[in-house]
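Schema walk-through. Below, the input block comes first and the output block second. Nothing else is stored per chain. Lengths vary across the set, and this one has 325 residues.
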Amino acid sequence: MIDFRYHLVSIVAIFLALAVGIVLGTTLLEDPAIRSAEELTRQLTAEKQEQREQIDEVLGQSQATDSFVTTLMPKLVEGELAGEQVLLVEAPGTNAAVREAEQEVLTAAGALVTGRLSLTERFFDPKSVGVLDGLVNQLKPAEMTFATTAGTHDKVATLLAATVMTTDQAQVGVPNEATAAVLTGLETGGFLNIDGDPDKRATVAVMFAPENPFEGEGAPAQAAAFTTLAGGLDAGGKGLVIAGADTAAAPGGVITALREDAELAKRVSTVDSADLPAGRIVIVYALREQVSGGAGQYGTGQGVSAFQPVEPTPTPTPTSTESGS
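--- output ---
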């Protein structure tokens, strides 16, 4: 008869055999496993270093190109906007450095920047629409009428266009007496801030898009408020360009919103490379095209027609010929 001691010895022997097997197996596999892990680590390190070198090379090439374009910029834009006065408009979330750099390029192109309107968060806040609507009706000239279908931001666009834009050369740089209280009224109401003399009417405008799309349930309405204002200011002058980085041309961005509006896209131009030296030059060319009656969507994002407008073909000068007898 098998007693308890026998069972105990058998169980101990089994566990001892398992332990010995585990130790032997680990010992036999230890060196190959370590070598394999070390080899994989070396490969990953080499690949990472190669990718870093490729990134550094691309960045170096990009910086060299930007430096080259910046050096040539004065020659590339010289005289392109001579005689034009430009209004700058920026939304909350705009990159101030991009706007400041573009202002320098516009000046180099021969344009005079009249001033800047900085739209506030309240301008886009759906909760403030009622207050804004009442203020617009209060500030508008008595003879100004709005379409029965006009929304609040349509009315604002019409009123601001009459205040800061013109197509009449005789009115350029001259404030509109009928709308003298509009800018101060909107500033007092907390809907915008004023810099310079934007009431001295401009011929063209550049609107700077927020770097990131509006967020939340009200985002589509906020983007629509921006593009509606763009359409109104464009109609009040010789043309308008919306400028921003490629993020503004992402889904939900205001540049995307305008490009998806077939009617507005026929009139208002966009440039989604304003954060690049080349893009800042393209803004000048897009404004030149606007003054000539054209429009286009430029840059590298979705919905572009090209990176830049086609340079206009010079009109050949007629030459007289003398016929001999």
